[in-house]
Amino acid sequence: MSTEAYISNGLRYIKPYYNTHSNYVKGRWIGKPLVDVLTTEFRSFSRDHYIEQIAQGNYQLKRDDVSLDVRSSPLRSGDVVTMRQHKHEPPVKQWCDLELENCDNSSRIAGFEIVQNNDRFLVINKPVGIPVHPTGQFYHNTITEILKDHGQVVSPCYRLDKVTSGLLILAKNNMAARDIQMKIGARDMNKIYLARVRGRFPHTTTGTTFSEDQLDNLFQHNSITTVANSPIYSIEPKKRFPAGLSDSKEAKTIFYPIRHLPETNESIVACKPLTGRTHQIRIHLARLGFPIVNDSIYNTECTMYSNRLQFMKDYHHWEHSPLTQDQLSLRFQQIINETKAVRYLKLDESNGTCKECGVSLMADPQMSQLELYLHAWRYYDNDKTFNFKTELPKWA
């Protein structure tokens, strides 16, 4: 997959490219023509689109290494489907210019600020607006793939959202990754995040600055901490109810006040998650009534997903909600409809569809959608075998 990156208007783009991959058929596909599977399983395009792509040879079917007629052959166990797709990766936020990205030294690699680099780990200060590893529509526009182009084959020891900045520990071998992950699993790794939230957080003092001494003594006074202890679950609008709601799992975050900023009525808060659920800090802050100021999902002032947010706030443990199954299904359908409406708004009407593959082109994301005032500031274990810290983000 030969790709080319370029930068424009603060965004890093990957020129569209073709990608070919093969998969064995799944059990639920057996007995169906491929076009039926594509139309019902993936739903990204119309049936006519898939028929056209099959006619162009972009989908192939083999059984015992013998090519079959994709249009008429029902799928069987052991069949291999090969798909050639035209990939349109969304742009990510530019973290440096291409010249700096291509000039590695002791302080930066691929333009990423190095916190520590040894034979076991590469620890970087992750910029906002770029995914850590291939996921969804992103592949080449991810940190691990960009580092691979710079001779660093590494794997992340934990997950950071695309919009989150801060400490990212990348392992250079399986043993190093296991050591970190075992400590995280045993809750022997202290993770301190910084967030800028709306409103005056409990016990914050007024001022615009704070000292390093304050940061070194976080969580020393239990009397001024705020504890959020409510379950977290994920919502997947691509699925139907109840499959689109994951099981509610225990989640606990401790918050420590740092400073109230009176000119904007915002606060800087330290966050210490004791569990590792998806969007845990963001959801807990929203439920407490102090959402991150620029959170485009969980802040009522700027969210495009008000139904999803309200559901999360109303039902901390959806399985135990007072709603009937029919009522829950209706609420979930509202979330699905909302997600479809947001996606429609993101379509780029000026460009229409790709002339090469027919996919609807998406508008570029707004810069505000690529940055979140949440920063992974410090990671350390109890005996300080691992002890990493970044510089403070500008917004803090």
TrEMBL record:
Pfam families: PseudoU_synth_2. Residues 121-286 form the Pseudouridine synthase RsuA/RluA-like domain. One of its GO terms (molecular function) is RNA binding. InterPro entries: PsdUridine_synth_cat_dom_sf, PsdUridine_synth_RluA-like_CS, PsdUridine_synth_RsuA/RluA, RluA_PseudoU_synthase. GO terms for biological process: enzyme-directed rRNA pseudouridine synthesis. It comes from the Eukaryota. This is Similar to Saccharomyces cerevisiae YGR169C PUS6 tRNA:pseudouridine synthase, catalyzes the conversion of uridine to pseudouridine at position 31 in cytoplasmic and mitochondrial tRNAs. It comes from Maudiozyma barnettii.
